[in-house]
Amino acid sequence: MQLVYSLGAWNWFILAVALLVLETVIPGVHFLWFGIAAVIIGLLAFATDIAWQWQVLAFALLSVLTVFWVRKYARPDVAISDQPDLNVRGQQYIGRSVIVEQAIQGGRGKVRVGDTLWAAEGPDASAGSRVTVTGTKGTVLVVERGTS
Fold it and tell me: What are phi and psi of 126, to 5 degrees?
């Protein structure tokens, strides 16, 4: 315990390093905000000579505030992307005219999009005819008879 008391404000930097190491080992962004709070309190402890009880209280408060701040501003639904359909490949094809590769019979068939075959649902269409993608159902493209 004497060692902990003798380190003083350095304890916060040691805690910060431990938390940031945990952040690299454990998946997710859990310990980063507590590590940042520990660095800030360490700097505060060096700049001022406040009691350790106030340091612990400030660390707890700052940790909670940073977690709530990140949850408010770093949500995926708040982040604006220039390519919102990047990971929803089928959505990128809506409106595109494609060629039926395997005839659509009984509402199911395959269409060619670029160099890839996609399962398709829609009205019956013979192989080689053009259809337009109007939507998706999972990994299946929903098509209608095309005009092009």
Answer: -80, 160
Whole-prediction pTM value? 0.50
In the chain, what are the domain boundaries? 2-73, 89-145
Q: Which fold has domain 89-145?
A: OB fold (Dihydrolipoamide Acetyltransferase, E2P) (2.40.50)
- pLDDT per position as a tens digit, 70-127: 877 766 665 676 776 666 778 888 999 999 999 999 999 999 998 899 999 999 999 9
**Residue given tokens 């009880």 in the structure block:** 53
Distance CA 42, CA 45 (A): 5
Tokens of 9: 């404000």
CA distance 100 to 119: 10
**Angstrom distance (rounded) from CA 139 to CA 111:** 12
Which helix or strand (DSSP H or E) is residue 133 part of? Answer: strand 130-137
SS (H, E, C) 72-131: HHCCCCCCCCCCCCCCCHHHHHCCCEEEEEEEEECCEEEEEECCEEEEEECCCECCCCEE
